[in-house]
């Protein structure tokens, strides 16, 4: 037996017991004749005491231990004189009887402390040591707990966890597939799923009614910060439901997760259409922890001779409460900030509503105080506020203003960690135009149902067709999204046609699904949450990597394994493929 | 709202309610002025009644419905005059008020009944329809339930569900990897995991202590019946444990699954060493639902002038209770059966212990009745029994006799469905010799720990080294296996050397793990269950395919998707690969 207890469970009720503990040496400290050893495992830290006076050789042995050595210690539980009420085991310590070294450790390349001295790359290379640090370990444990809560909620609501295949068929629509050469079927390839979308729809056709899976998905995209080539979805689908049914069940899920994991009772989630979100926040996933919504200024600012405004398709203002005290220097910095290529604005106009009621703008040449007062009234500004204005093409200026709003939220501390605001964004457009390929793409995916009343516009005005599609945003992060699906073969064929598929292409790629619709498909819809993302949002973390045990870096490499890597010629030969570089 | 209730929940307590149901038309029957419609969903079947006298047009509409049409029906719950107590909804029926057709169905290519007229291939091509059949659907639901029980048990025992990567590094040791070309890292490949073995060991090094995952694994093997290129494991690992700890926790898991799923309380599992299993059953996964164990006959049969026995390395007999009545014809058939190439015996000797106490064998020329009596005594035979004897090289004759024993078990009805016998097989050999490549291979995998007392034989007598490795067999099927792992870098390096790796090869392939062992690795071990297999065993099914929603056929193809398939040249180009066929 390696241990009678773990390092997190002994307390004063166990005083007098002889125990065996196993774990890692967190640190040793010598105080005159005493040596204290902090023994660590997943559950906590227990203090072990060695006394030079009573057992010099054992004490000597303890002093020779290094950090991260794995040891087994037998000893007696005694009450501590110097109690530490911050940890569960802080009222006791163990008087050691014997030590057995189970495994020596070299000096780790970085300290196993929350405040480690290891850089990102080094910690990723030794991820198994990084995972020993409390804060990293706790994130992985939290992920486990969130997964359990999700499963229990869905099980309790009659959902079935049904596994779908990983070796599927490549369907070039959407993101790029990872492919897997087949040895037995030479010259042919499987693809790894970007999501189980078509399978969950087939399960609905099969009558399974309520499906879920916490499942790995794969996308071979050009990587950006905080994108992983493999990621995990909480993937769900339901039959005989309308949008309202779906929103209710998954709002319940998110509430349950927050309650069980964070102890937070969330209020009912507000809802907003995509159009409203874009008008008020310039984003389809607005952070509604703070206001500072957009004001359309065109009617207030155009026709006064200021060319930039006059030529703009859209002039937008936000009112920044209590920011009139911003200095000229601070505003200049903001102006530089919006002019960076990442934001791309040509400039920033401001109007300061001073505490004394006077108004001052950077465009006083064109606008008198009465004009400025009308701006302030339109924006709901009060003395002490600062109005910031951007102008240009609608889509661009909205994006820029969204960034500026979030930045002002950050600067003023309005995006509080620990404050969680969920929002349903509804009625997404069905299609979006791609300039590069000069064609319409499905905004969600090709299986999303257009709103009934908009179907007639599919050809005349495709951009105006709204979908029965919805996203859940928490604190400005999209954590999930879904839609009501098409379940009619004719409409599905029409959709593929609209997306530029020939009937043959549609049949070759998605024939199995369209054929399935001919044998009695129920109305159905669903939703998928990004599990990594949901964990990160709950943990107030910007990075999903923290919540993945073995993540890849921004080039899609696992630096610990040194993968991907070249493979044997023999393997390539068996697969009947050749590399061409 | 598509439904107020599902098709399995209405009963006499709901009489008088107006309800809305949605589902599939299982069948319609006309009786004079009445039409009965069985409406089906995942939860059951509800009978709907249409009356020609009260609403002719509605009744006409119902008569025009086809099998598998999806309809929504509004109606009133009434008590049935002709009750069916076999189904939950059998005491009520619904008097229809209206029908709405949600989705028409073509005539399915086979009947959606347990006793379907569809062949295997057709059902696989239309798997989404096959899944509608009660017995198939129930298997998928049972799988969901087993998964839940497993997770709850492991969660309750402090295990953490931790996800490991799917895009990993190819390590040619063991079975063949599926590989995934990397586009961003040209000329390099990921591999799909054959199991998360090295990751779970790294998690132990990280201190996670108790890990599990229900996880997809991939092996590119030449397919045989009932092998899938992708399969699911219940993968577990624990730190600071000895073999006994692991056996106990997972025996508890299996007991819990049988109790919760089948209502069966299993007794403590017997244990047997690998050597015993081979001697008594000729199998490392014996079916112990029945006896008929092997008897070594060499000392009883050799030296009497019967050349076949005299030259045999091993002569084995089984005593088949109560089978003395087997006719000459039946025994001839058995002889042909063991001589088939799949079994490969050269012949079968029998000795009949007649009810009258006389003995008769097929080798009476060489053995007198006294000899035969000594055989019977040695085999524990009674009058009325039949002794069957095979001889030859040890390994072959054991395999043959194992097959014959199982066949006799089948013939005599001793392998009863619903009777479950679990067995731990312990002390597997560490290594096995491969004739083809003339080298030793790890029987379990290269991370398995040899028994301490056998380590010294690693070089002198590799075949005699036993491992701390164990399998769980249920009714003759291996449902799981595992081992205590090596956690010492030096021993791990020695093991790789023994397997023919140069130090450089070992470092290149498994360096990340061996390096991890230098930073304080805890003693650890684990086990993995084949989840598909476990489900099949619980369901008394020979085929794991029944328990997989979308299985592949024996050529690794998904006939529903028609996958694998050729991919675009554009895709190949982006990946910098070429097919060579």
What does the oligomeric state look like here?
A: homodimer
Output mean pLDDT of chain A: 95
Relative helix content of chain A: 25-40%
The poorly predicted ranges of chain A are none
Enter the CATH topology name of the largest domain in chain A.
Answer: BirA Bifunctional Protein, domain 2
Spatially, the strands of the biggest sheet of chain A line up as 6-9-10-22-21-20-17-11
Supply the number of structural domains of chain A. Answer: 3
Classified by CATH, the class of the largest domain in chain A is Alpha Beta
Number of strands of chain A: 23
**How widely separated are the two ends of chain A?**
55 Å
Interface with most residues: A-B, 120 and 120 residues
Strand content of chain A: 15-25%
The biggest sheet of chain A, with number of strands, parallel, antiparallel or mixed sense and barrel status, is: 8 strands, mixed
Rg calc of chain A: 30 Å
Structural class from helices and strands of chain A? Answer: alpha+beta
The best one-word shape of chain A is globular
- CATH architecture field of the largest domain in chain A: 2-Layer Sandwich
CATH superfamily of the largest domain in chain A: Bira Bifunctional Protein, Domain 2
Number of helices of chain A: 17
